[in-house]
Each structure stands twice: as C-alpha cells, then as structure tokens.
Design goal:
InterPro entries: COMT-like, COMT_C, SAM-dependent_MTases_sf. It contains 15 helices and 10 strands. The chain is of the alpha/beta class. Strands 3, 4, 5, 6, 7, 8, 9 and 10 form an 8-stranded mixed β-sheet that branches. It has a two-stranded antiparallel ribbon with strand order 1-2.
Length: about 325
C-alpha cells in the first residue's frame, strides 16, 4: 500500500496524469517518457506499481482522470506529503518521547517526522509557500465539499430573534480559512442586519483570491485575546480538533469577548464521537489529528473542555447517522 501510494504521488509529480489523453486512447510508455523528458524505465516501474490501466499497450487515464482535479491533487498531496510521514513514524516518536498522548504542538508526530527545528506545524509550513498553498487549498477543498454541517445550526432563527444593527458585529468566523463557511452562514442569515467578519492567520487571508462580498477579513491568532467584542455569534469550525487542551485558551478568549450573555453565544462546528463504536472514517481522522496533537472528542470531553473555559453547552444540533454537530455554548 505504501509503495502503491508513493508511486501515484511520483506520477502526479512527473505530470503523467496531465499528459495522458482524456479520451482514453492513451500513450505508450516510450511516448509518455519523451513528452515528459523522464526515463522510460522509471515510467514503467511506477505505472506498474500504481496499476495505471493500459489499452493495447498504451497507458490510459480511465481511472486516474480524478487526479486532474486541482482540489483532489492538493488533498492527495496533503495526505502523502504532510500526514503520511508523521503516521509511519508514530512508533519512532513514541519510542523517543514516551508512550503518552502528544500535547505539545512543537513536539508531536508531525514535528518529529518533518524535523521542524522547534517550530509547530503552522509556523514550519508557512516557510514553504508551495506546501502552504497546497495545505490551505486542501483544507478549503475538504471544507467546501461538505458544508452541510454548517447548516445544522439555525442561524436565521436565532439571529433574527436578537437585537442587531447595521454596524454591529453579527457573526465572527474564528479560524475560518478562506471564508467557505461564513459565505454559507451569511446566506442562511437572510436579511438580518450586522457585520460578518472572517478571522484567520495573515498568510491564510493573503492566500484568498476569490471575492467575499459582504464579509470583512481580519488577521487573528486564536491564542490571542479576541479583538471583536459583542458579536452575536462567534463561530469556530474544524479548528479545535487540531489542538489538545491548549484550545481551552482559545475558548477563554472567546468567552471574554461576550459582554452580554443574554444575546451572545459561541457555536462550535465539530464532530462528537460516540463513547463506543467509533466508525472507521472518524478513527482515521482522529489519527490524522493526533499527528498535530489534536483529537476528535466525545460529548463528555466537549463538556469538560468548555467548562474549563467558563462555558457550558446550551444546545446541540445533530443529524441521524453522522457524527458532525453544532454545539452552542454560553457563559456558565
């Protein structure tokens, strides 16, 4: 499996999938090697290992056409280039650091595997523009492909019942990436008055190339004091699972921005794992989170973490058959 995945990654890097005709006619390995200026033997070795289909001795892209999608490319690169090296060195990390759950962002399976020199993943990968672009695009692709969890929370019903004004902050999307969720929230909110503010690291906001009408962008570090106080809703999606108990600091920052507990709340869009019988996909995601010291959480763990930040759960919105949830939290 490792060599199969590695061969696909090598073929992607060579440009093989883009060079093959999409009409299924294919190219011979010799013609492909000449077109890409790579060794003929190398093409043969990698295509055999990756099971690239052949027709009349021509290599075709019948199944590999999926890799022509830029978002799929970046997701695949993220998994192979960033997460896989950490995953295959789990045993080395735990042998070196001890058999305990990693909790230090600068000393975790990812930083161990990539030799980050004392930097956490975020600061380390920001040094490499191409890798950072892939990382950011992959997260954007993953998020936009499944925006339905954002709709679990009744934004219009809740926000329209609260006093608002044109210039007051309505929704602050904390760590909101390229604004994929906030665009959905703005649409769901209908004609409710107020400002929609997207917060994330400066390099993430700088990487946004599309228009975000009606949305303000503001650089922000989740571990710093919240700069927008009084917002009706602080929304944070797919962020807290990247951090261990340190994310309590982030939640405390949000809690301190609540000036009127009667009309303000925090909405967390994350998974809630069952206490027993976790499905395979959630388990895989949990292991990926662990490379960065993060974790998916059970209801009991969410309650405990929120309580440590001075918050309590007021409502939980879920859908049958899925672990995704919207957790509404207010001051205790």
């Amino acid at each position: 499996m490792v060599f199969h995945t590695g061969s696909l990654r090598a073929l992607l890097e060579m440009g093989v999938f883009h060079a093959l005709p999409v009409d299924g006619t294919g190219l011979t390995a010799v013609a492909l090697a000449q077109a890409l200026q790579v060794d003929r033997q190398l093409i043969g070795e990698y295509t055999e290992e990756s099971d690239l289909p052949a027709k009349n001795h021509n290599l075709t892209c019948v199944f590999s056409v999926i890799y022509l999608d830029p978002q799929v490319q970046d997701l695949f690169k993220l998994i192979v280039d960033e997460y896989l090296p950490a995953g295959v060195k789990f045993h080395n990390f735990f042998r070196s650091e001890g058999l305990q759950d990693p909790v230090e962002a600068k000393n975790c399976p990812y930083t161990f595997a990539h030799c980050t020199g004392g930097k956490d993943m975020w600061d380390y990968i920001a040094q490499y523009p191409d890798r950072f672009r892939v990382f950011n695009n992959a997260l954007y692709a993953q998020s936009t492909s499944a925006t339905w969890p954002v709709t679990l929370y009744p934004f219009n019903k809740v926000l329209s019942s609260l006093p608002t004004s044109e210039n007051a902050p309505l929704v602050v999307d904390v760590g909101g990436g390229k604004g994929q969720a906030l665009r959905v929230i703005r649409k769901l909110s209908g004609d409710v008055k107020g400002r929609f503010i997207l917060q994330d690291r400066p390099e993430v906001l700088d990487d946004i190339t599309h228009e975000l009408p009606g949305i303000e962008k503001q650089p922000y570090d989740i571990f710093c004091p919240q700069t927008i106080s009084g917002a009706r809703t602080y929304f944070i999606r797919r962020v807290l699972h990247d951090w261990p108990e340190a994310c309590i600091r982030s939640l405390k920052n949000l809690a301190s921005a609540i000036t009127n507990e009667n009309v303000q709340r925090i909405v967390i869009s994350e998974k809630i794992l069952p206490a027993k019988g976790v499905d395979a996909v959630s388990t895989w995601i949990n292991l990926a989170d662990m490379t960065l010291t993060g974790a998916e959480r059970t209801m009991k763990q969410w309650e405990s973490m929120l309580a440590a930040a001075g918050l309590c759960i007021s409502e939980v919105y879920t859908v049958s058959g899925a672990t995704d949830a919207a957790i509404e939290a207010v001051l205790k």
